[in-house]
Design goal:
- The structure is a single chain.
- The protein is an alpha/beta fold.
- Helices cover 47% and strands 16% of the residues.
- It is built from 15 helices and nine strands.
- Helix 8 packs parallel to helix 10 and helix 13 runs parallel beside helix 15.
- The model has no long low-confidence stretch (mean pLDDT 96).
- It binds ligand 9MR.
């Protein structure tokens, strides 16, 4: 009986992304959204069966976790972190410093440089300190660059100045010296003014001893925009040469804006997912592949574009899609 239940269990485990990824120490993850996490048992089951890494999609953002100047709200992120650790999954913390999803108490008041510096330092140290030892990697700074390679205007740059980025990394490291610290952005996967500027910043941080471990490539994609995979490999390689990890942190693939039959669009989507994972698996410094959501109906995209879409690995009936199969196959063939 024991033997058969063992066989059955191994069979079930075999058919999951995390099982095939874990054999090689690779991390395959998804972002978690609080409403389905709290209300949808099937959603939680997919999370724990399929992934060995979770990113908290919204509940660690400044406005959510630090809603008033003198109070923090760790309730939902605590539940998700506990769930992850109970199920032997790692967690990516997202995100400490960003221009968006800020609380009103920050947005609608003018602070001096000294005040804002203390606010940011306290925020980072309180949040990172709360999860010390539990969060495997933090997106310390998110989307600080414009596409032309200049720094994005935001309250941090305006009031603290460009040093806010390196200060954030130092403060996060002080609060949890074992957490990996990432800079995360979008449209930075190829070689372009934005990715060059980010690379120069990270290289400079390494030279100066600022604690940065990795760069996240969000990889929000669409079947109507092709990718230059050679350039992505080249970009990942230059990070490897300076001892910096890379991760795919927020991948999804839109299928709207195409006139192809739906089945064909899902095949194109699968192809994009698997080619991107392939680049990561063939790059020795690429340690994780994370999708931005799990089940199509909970994706952020329809709300953002105003059009329905199906950007993820599971459809609205929780069935795995061709994109899932393509990732599974890629993991099976190419992890080492
Ligand atoms: O998916 C997230 C969506 O639910 C939120 O409304 C939005 C604003 O906080 O952020 C979305 O996630 C973003 C992520 O935090 C950073 N990279 C881009 C993601 C998609 O906009």
């Amino acid at each position: 009986m024991f033997f058969f239940s063992f066989l059955y269990k191994s069979f079930l485990e075999k058919n999951s992304l995390r099982k095939v990824a874990s054999e090689d120490g690779f991390l395959v993850g998804a972002s978690v959204s609080s409403i389905p996490f709290l209300e949808d048992e099937k959603y939680r089951k997919i999370l724990k069966d399929e992934f060995n890494l979770l990113t908290i999609e919204n509940d660690m953002k400044f406005a959510k976790i630090h809603p008033q100047r003198d109070s923090y709200n760790f309730v939902i992120p605590d539940l998700i972190v506990e769930f992850a650790l109970e199920n032997d999954m790692k967690v990516r913390g997202h995100t400490l410093v960003w221009h968006a999803t800020l609380p009103d108490w920050l947005t609608y008041k003018n602070y001096s440089k000294e005040e804002l510096t203390i606010i940011l330092k306290n925020h980072i140290q309180e949040v990172v300190g709360h999860y010390r030892g539990k969060i495997y990697a933090w997106d310390v700074v998110n989307e600080a660059y414009n596409d032309d390679g200049t720094l994005r205007e935001n309250i941090w740059l305006k009031t603290i100045g460009p040093a806010y980025i390196e200060l954030a990394f130092k403060w996060a490291h002080e609060a949890d010296p074992n957490a990996l610290l990432f800079y995360n952005d979008y449209s930075n996967e190829g070689i372009n003014p934005k990715s060059n500027a980010i690379f120069e910043m990270v290289k400079n941080f390494k030279n100066k001893g600022i604690p940065v471990n990795g760069v996240g490539f969000q990889m929000h994609s669409s079947i109507t925009y092709s990718k230059n995979y050679e350039k992505i490999i080249e970009n990942f390689k230059r990070y490897r040469n300076i001892g910096v990890d890379v991760q795919i942190t927020e991948m999804d693939v839109k299928v709207q804006h195409s006139h192809a039959p739906y089945d064909r669009r899902l095949e194109q989507q699968a192809d994009m997912y698997s080619k991107t994972l392939n680049v990561c698996l063939l790059s020795s410094n690429c340690s994780a592949f994370v999708t931005w959501g799990v089940v199509d109906k909970y994706s952020w995209i329809p709300g953002f574009t105003g059009q329905k879409d199906a950007p993820l690995l599971f459809d609205n009936q929780y069935r795995s899609k061709p994109s899932y199969d393509a990732l599974y196959k890629e993991l099976e063939e190419n992890s080492n």
